[in-house]
């Protein structure tokens, strides 16, 4: 079965559940899925019911699509994403972005929890992603290109939409939020980075490190979607604090999620 044939079946199923127009796709990362609870007139579709959809295996990821209205916009939110480290190939990790594009979304808002590499960051900071470094050892576009989906060689020079970032900065300033900006470096995981890898990331120009986002954004750009990326800095990366654990990630997102939710909602309202 070709990718296009799978997508046709998936999209037909999603339409049959009552999903109509989609303006924005939302990918909600670790501990940030609660934003989907604020979607109005919602249609909830568990991943397990959707043809050709993988299932999320990570704690803090609910595993369902939520469709409806958020901040006056028609959104399709992923409560829980797929990671390369779960054993999925890159095409599977990014399949939901293909679905969003197939549902005619024009933009993607992608969020994540990640480690701070920039020495000026502290846990709980929110960071607008300005650019990324793909250090995951794979790319979702490897293989035959399906020309109707996008170009063979996508231009990544403006992957993260500058005008969207400016709107988010205006919203943050109006709320008194000190919003950081920086480069996100994607690692495969599931191990946290070593202190040496963190030093390497800093020298390479990264401000934050994580295990997601990069593949989804590559496919979003390939599909012609505009992208807004927001990271929650949940911990300082290895070598910058005593130790690292997933509980801290969830705990930090818990602490800042009100700020995070209002930033996303108020930015969406103005896009």
From TrEMBL:
Domain annotation Nucleoside phosphorylase: ranges: 24-268
Function as written in the Swiss-Prot or TrEMBL entry: The purine nucleoside phosphorylases catalyze the phosphorolytic breakdown of the N-glycosidic bond in the beta-(deoxy)ribonucleoside molecules, with the formation of the corresponding free purine bases and pentose-1-phosphate. Cleaves guanosine, inosine, 2'-deoxyguanosine and 2'-deoxyinosine.
EC number of the protein: 2.4.2.1
Protein residues bound to a purine D-ribonucleoside: 193, 235
Pathway entry: Purine metabolism; purine nucleoside salvage
Protein name per UniProt: Purine nucleoside phosphorylase
Matches recorded under NCBIfam families: PNPH, PNPH-PUNA-XAPA, PRK08202.1
Family indicated by similarity: Belongs to the PNP/MTAP phosphorylase family.
Organism of origin: Enterococcus cecorum
First-level EC class: transferase
